[in-house]
Amino acid sequence: MRRRGERVPREKVAEEEVKSGGRKAEQGAEQYQCSGLLEQDFPELCARAGITGVPRVTLRPPPSFPAEEEPPEPPLAEVLARIERKYSPLQPRIQVEREHEDPRSVRAVFLRGWKLEEAVLGVLSQCLPALAGLQAVHLWKVGLTERLLPALAALPGRCPRLRTLSLEGNPLPEPAFHTLLGSDSTLAHLSLRNNSIGDAAARLIGQSLACNRSLVSLSLSFNRISDLGAGGIAQGLRLNRSLLSLSLANNDIGDAGATRLAETSKETEGQSEHFSSLRSSAAAPDTLPPAKHGKKKKELLQKEEARQAKKSLEPRRAPSKTAKPSGQEKLSPEVGDAGGTGWRGGAQFGGPTPLQGPPRVQLLLEEAKQHLGSIILPGNRALLNLNLSYNHVTERGLGALLAALERQQREAARPGTRGLLCLSLEGNRIPPTSPAFARLQELLLPLDSLRDEEEEEDGGA
User: Fold this and answer.
1) Pairwise CA distance, residues 286 & 357, whole Å
2) Beta strands in 294-416 (DSSP E)
3) Order of strands, edge to edge, in the sheet holding 330-331?
4) Which of 95, 231, 276, 317 is deepest in the core (most CB within 10 A)?
5) What is the DSSP letter of 198?
6) CA 398, CA 424: separation in Å to the nearest integer?
7) pLDDT in tens, 300-329
8) Partners of 387 in the beta sheet?
9) Please, which pLDDT band fits residue 66 given cuts at 50, 70 and 90?
10) Which among 54, 2, 45, 48 has a CA at the least distance from the CA of 23?
């Protein structure tokens, strides 16, 4: 006779087979090796992930230009084909640009006008790293949320040549775009146009700029940034030395914001607390506030004093002929532990030398100075292009910008830097007959002459 318990193991085996089949399907999606053909990899991974209504991957049509002569009336079939081509981009699809005819030479990916779901972004995060030539990703009005930004921030690290990210028309309810500009970011070009970015988000972006080392151009036009947000961005520019172009066009910036932006090119003199505030603005969110570091600060100061006393007993080297007089010592930035950077002589003006994981702050290209117990930070001469078009700047703000340009002309240019070369102020509250505006146009170097100068330098090299 057959025991009643004999059928139970068979049922369990059947259940385990069903579960193992599901696990194999999941493992199949994970183990799928992308071929570098987005037209093939994307639908395949979507099918394995159970995503329905998969957008098509199509080649982006080249830009069309109006003909010089009016063409004859086309037949009905061609008219219908034109209508289909005109409205086909409104359907969910992924458009790609290629370097040449090879389907593996995709250099840019475009998603326009349809909501990007988290599952689809997860599939794209698997497909895009296989595109060896991918340089740009454009997401226009795709309904981004804060949950999707971490995956987008991780893309440049997984795509070797990805340097351009455009997220236009994607307003977020809470400020989160600054997470794309961390100290480990490799993005070179970022466009955040028309995202309803306010002052709170602009201040966070300014804090991220203070520790960013890769961003070359940033577009924040068509947002809601006022003088407060412009001041936060200006504070970040004091420590940034990578950004070359900044667009703040079509915002709500007035004279106060323009003045703060103009002062970024000027040397900043302040006590160590002033520099510490700039440095701590780029600190990680999990760091303790300065008030809780009092005891630790005293211990670090005591260690620093002991180290200096021990060092004073050692035989000193002969003074260099190029040594600076007392009170004018230069403080060059030095790399500390893997966690960040340190500053020589920090204990002399109230700031402890960072020893254990300080906030990561970008190294300045120029050397800071010490003068009568104060730190003098060099001005920002890396920014070449500033766009303030269609804001609320009057002649008062124009005066601050003009003073900055005149100071730039008087001071000797530092090696490897030029200073501001292009300043856009159209659409503001400045009369066209203003003498200050005419003087500002004289000081700005025309782009044509700048291009000729660069070509001559390249030819000489």
Assistant:
1) 12
2) 330-331, 333-335, 341-343, 368-371, 374-377, 385-387
3) 268-270, 374-377, 368-371, 330-331
4) 231
5) -
6) 11
7) 555 555 555 544 444 444 434 433 433 333
8) 247, 424
9) low
10) 48
The 10 Å Cβ neighbour count of residue 406 is 13
Residue 375 host element (H or E): strand 374-377
Angle of helix 395-410 relative to helix 255-262, nearest 10 degrees?
A: 10
CB 380 within 8 A of CB 432: no
The residue count of the chain comes to 461
DSSP 176: -
309: amino acid identity, one letter = A
Number of C-beta neighbours around residue 260 at 10 A: 21
- DSSP state, residue 111: E
Tokens 């250099």 correspond to: 107
d(CA 52, CA 236) in angstroms, rounded, equals 44
Tokens of 365: 């290209």
Closest CA to 111 of 95, 127, 126, 100: 95
Radius of gyration of the chain (CA): 29
Backbone angles phi, psi at 340, to 5 degrees: 170, -155
Q: List the structure tokens of 359.
A: 């906030």
d(CA 223, CA 249): 8
Task: Say if CB 368 and CB 345 are below 8 A apart.
Answer: no
- Confidence class for position 137, pLDDT limits 50, 70, 90: very high
What tens digit of pLDDT does each residue of 336-345 get? 333 333 333 3
Q: Does residue 364 contact residue 239 with C-beta atoms inside 8 Å?
A: yes
8 A C-beta contact, residue 4 and residue 60: no
H and E: helices and strands count for the chain? 13, 16
Q: What is the DSSP string of 331-357?
A: E-EEE-STT-EEETTGGGGTPPPP-S-
398-425 per-position pLDDT tens digit: 999 999 998 888 875 555 457 888 999 9
